[in-house]
Design brief:
With about 160 residues, the chain is an alpha/beta fold. Helix content is about 40%, strand content about 20%. The N and C termini lie far apart (about 55 Å).
C-alpha cells in the first residue's frame, strides 16, 4: 500500500499464478477415484478457461470430451455425437442461447440424456429453478476436480 496526502492511495495485490489444473486434480486421478470407462461427455461452456479446466479434469479421469463454446454449437455437437454421449455438462449463462433453452432442446432431441447444470448460482437456487426438469446434477462454480468428477459419476450411475 502506498498512500500520499493529496496524491491518493495505491494498493498492489500479488497473487500466485494459476494454470488451471490443481495438484488436487492429479491426486484424484492418480488414486483412481472416479475413473471413466471411456464414456464421452459434452461440455458446453462459454468461458475458455473453465471449458479447458473441465476438459483436462475429465480427460485425466479417462473420459472422451467434446467441447462447445456456446449453446448453439452445443446443440450442433449434440446432434453430431448424440447417441455416443453419456452426459452433457451445461453452463447456465451463455451467449447465443442460454442453458435453459439448450436443456429444453436437448430433451426434444433425446429425452433420456443426462444433463449436469454448471453455474455460479447456489445449488439451492438451481434446484428451485430446474424443479421437475430431470437434471442429473449441479456443479457450482468455481468447482474442483473432485466435485466435478463425483457429480458426473453420480449422474452416470443413477
Amino acid at each position: 500500500i502506498d498512500s500520499r496526502v493529496g496524491k491518493g492511495t495505491t494498493v498492489n495485490l500479488y497473487l500466485p499464478r494459476h494454470d488451471g489444473v490443481t495438484p488436487e486434480a492429479v491426486l484424484v486421478v492418480q488414486r483412481g477415484e472416479h475413473q471413466s470407462a471411456g464414456e464421452t461427455v459434452l461440455v458446453v461452456e462459454d468461458e475458455p478457461h473453465i471449458r479447458d479446466l473441465a476438459k483436462t479434469i475429465l480427460e485425466e479421469a479417462g473420459f472422451h470430451v467434446v467441447l462447445a463454446p456456446d449453446g448453439r454449437r452445443g446443440l450442433d455437437e449434440f446432434r453430431r455425437h448424440g447417441q455416443n454421449l453419456a452426459a452433457v455438462i451445461l453452463d447456465l449463462t451463455m451467449p447465443q442461447m442460454n442453458g435453459e433453452e439448450v436443456l429444453r432442446r436437448l430433451r426434444q432431441l433425446r429425452p433420456d440424456v443426462r444433463v449436469i447444470v454448471m453455474s455460479g448460482y447456489s445449488e439451492h437456487e438451481m434446484h428451485q429453478r430446474f424443479a421437475g426438469q430431470r437434471v442429473a446434477g449441479f456443479v457450482q462454480k468455481p468447482f474442483g476436480p473432485a466435485m466435478l468428477l463425483a457429480t458426473l459419476h453420480q449422474a452416470l450411475e443413477g
